[in-house]
């Protein structure tokens, strides 16, 4: 595969790169800057395009690195909350007076795999992801969407593994509940 | 016996790190008797699949686009006129 002319990159991939960045940094101005940095870096790196990947995949890979650099630069401004800071919404999911059982039992989900093929499900998924507290969204996205391992994540955020695991746990509990309320529960009611 | 809260943390953590044999045993014993946590465990598997699938879909994009002014600014910077 060969690269198309750099003049066309912005039109062909600009929006996709922007959405990718916005999902992760949550600020449009920052996402725009990252798209610009990415395209400029891509211009300089044209010769290193190996041709093995599609053009967009290549650009996304560059953008991913820019996003990680961005998080690294800003990690001191907002360090990851300590894992032992209580999170009221999470505490409320368990019944401390009753041996920390689920306060509301997770419901059975009907046909979860079919959801993956439905456009409305992905809108619900995106809304739930956007509803997470910023830091929980950050660790969840870097882990589950971008495939970073704990070790790598700890380096980027300068955090302890136990702290990252607590953040991931909270993110997953919140997403689970949000999907149950906004998708799986709602689907069950319609039937 | 581990609580549901502890088990949910360990189940979540098992996606990111290898649990000790003692933790694995504790989780397994709890899951044997707790249907709620078994559901939770299956839902965590689903969440991982969904995360990966969402990442793939995102490349083709769902919604949202660069504002005209941002597009113009980026275009200019690419032409070296910034």
Which keywords apply here?
heterodimer, A: 191 residues, mainly alpha, Rna Polymerase Sigma Factor, Chain: A, Arc Repressor Mutant, subunit A, 2 domains, two-stranded antiparallel sheet, 65% helix, 2% strand, B: 82 residues, 0% strand, elongated
SSE topology sketch:
The complex is a heterodimer of chains A (191) and B (82).
Chain A: H1 9-25, H2 28-44, H3 55-74, H4 88-91, E1 94-95, E2 101-102, H5 112-115, H6 119-130, H7 134-145, H8 150-157, H9 161-190
Antiparallel strand pairs in A: 1-2
Helix pairs in contact in A: 1-2, 1-3, 2-3, 6-9, 7-9
Chain B: H1 4-13, H2 21-33, H3 35-60, H4 68-78
Number of domains of chain A: 2
The CATH topology label of the largest domain in chain A is Arc Repressor Mutant, subunit A
Biggest beta sheet attributes of chain B: none
Strand line-up in the sheet with most strands of chain A: 1-2
Question: Greatest chain-chain interface?
Answer: A-B, 60 and 45 residues
Average the pLDDT over all residues of chain A and give the rounded result: 89
Put simply, the count of helices of chain A is: 9
Low-confidence stretches of chain A: none
- Structurally, the number of domains of chain B stands at 1
Give the helix proportion of chain B (percent range): over 70%
Largest sheet of chain A: 2 strands, antiparallel
The quaternary organization reads as: heterodimer
Any guess at the CATH architecture of the largest domain in chain A? Orthogonal Bundle
Query: What is the fourth-level CATH superfamily of the largest domain in chain A?
Result: Winged helix-like DNA-binding domain superfamily/Winged helix DNA-binding domain
C-alpha Rg of chain A (nearest Å): 19 Å
Based on DSSP secondary structure assignment, what is the total number of beta strands of chain A? 2
